[in-house]
User: Fold this.
Amino acid sequence: MSTTDELPNRWLFTPEEVAELLRVTRRTVYTWLRTERLPGTNYGRWVVQRADLLAFIEGTAAKAVQRRKRRGRRQ
Assistant:
């Protein structure tokens, strides 16, 4: 099952929830938020909208496929 299938049907996610869903550390998620790699809003506490999380997942997957294709051409 892909990560997008595992997403709860909710509008907002905390960084802790994002970390658990993506199987990364909270620190990684906070770094992505601070560097704007992952869009989020800080209302005194960070939140990530579902649409932004889905776009991030899809964009990350697309980049991984592109990297694999480039590596395949070099070998």
Observations:
- The chain has a mean pLDDT of 86.
- The CA atoms of residues 39 and 52 lie 6 Å apart.
